[in-house]
Task: inverse folding
């Protein structure tokens, strides 16, 4: 199966796991040893609102390649059938776009690019 033929919501499903694992890993390596503290820090990066802000930061600062932008657009334009009550549909779609990007990069085995994007996200104050 070609990567471009994978449903963008499937990419987002995978990317959600990849992205959250890397964020959790980062804070654990920063010696955040109490689960409550760890959760509070991680949520600032993995909530739909945060993900929406980060994907827009990456786009606004021309950090993504054209290929990556295509995946982001596919993810954002996916038909979503539900979303969390605490977030509007547009924000949720942008979060899905970020997750799609990470799922896509993971399937392509672009570990260095994933690491690069995670590092940018972790350095940005939003």
Result:
């Amino acid at each position: 199966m070609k990567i471009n033929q994978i449903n963008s919501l499937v990419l987002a499903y995978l990317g959600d796991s990849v992205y959250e694992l890397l964020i959790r890993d980062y804070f654990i390596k920063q010696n955040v040893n109490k689960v409550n503290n760890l959760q509070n820090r991680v949520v600032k990066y993995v909530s739909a609102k945060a993900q929406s802000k980060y994907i827009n930061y990456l786009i606004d600062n021309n950090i993504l390649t054209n290929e990556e932008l295509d995946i982001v657009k596919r993810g954002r334009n996916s038909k979503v059938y539900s979303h969390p009550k605490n977030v509007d549909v547009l924000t949720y779609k942008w979060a899905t776009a970020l997750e799609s990007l990470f799922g896509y990069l993971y399937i392509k085995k672009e570990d260095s690019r994933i690491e690069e994007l995670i590092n940018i996200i972790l350095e940005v104050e939003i």
User: Anything to note?
Assistant: The chain is about 70% helix and 0% strand.
